[in-house]
């Protein structure tokens, strides 16, 4: 069933990117994936759940990319953040799904970056906290600090999404600014 799930997610991706999402019926998406309509309903339940699963799959791809960039960055929490933000925003510039989400009101995915972004935010917050704890193991010794790191990571995520939706400066500048926010917020946590 895993391959049917991926095929359905791929079909939804193609429909959104091609601009067919608004007019595509569930039966059309199932046919595009080479499965029955019932299989689609069994796997996702409805169109919103299919869109949510697609958004989460794309978030996981970005999480892998940003996590690798943060882990490979040398320096402090700001440097790790700058590397992750640069990777995310640069990849988003060329990502057909992100482009369609931001430019096509009928795709229905924009809320998964904004008002329905809790699941995606959880993915990035948890991974970011794990990266910071890997790099600064003393953070894990104090649960109150770990919770604070989670809040800082969530704040950075929200800033990235905001800049993704309305880019007001070049990627490198945005990355540097968000990194400085994280650096200042982390300063007290990593020096005590």
Mind explaining what this structure looks like?
Keywords: DNA-binding. Residues 2-62 form the HTH tetR-type domain. Pfam families: TetR_C_35, TetR_N. Residues 25-44 bind DNA. With 192 residues, the chain is an all-alpha fold. The chain has 2 domains: 1-45, Arc Repressor Mutant, subunit A (Orthogonal Bundle); 55-191. Helices cover 76% and strands 0% of the residues. It has 9 helices and no strands. Helix 2 (26-33) packs across helix 3 (37-44) and helix 5 (77-93) runs antiparallel to helix 9. The longest helix has 26 residues, at 47-72. The radius of gyration is 18 Å and the shape is elongated. The chain starts with a helix and ends with a helix.
Query: Quick check: average pLDDT?
Result: 91
Note the gap between the termini.
50 Å
Count of domains: 2
**Would you list the SSEs in sequence order as H and E?**
HHHHHHHHH
Number of helices: 9
Q: Uncertain spans, ≥5 residues at pLDDT below 50?
A: none
Biggest sheet statistics: none
Strand tally is 0
Shape: elongated
Q: What is the strand content?
A: under 5%
Helix-residue proportion: over 70%
Structural class: mainly alpha
Tell me the radius of gyration. Answer: 18 Å
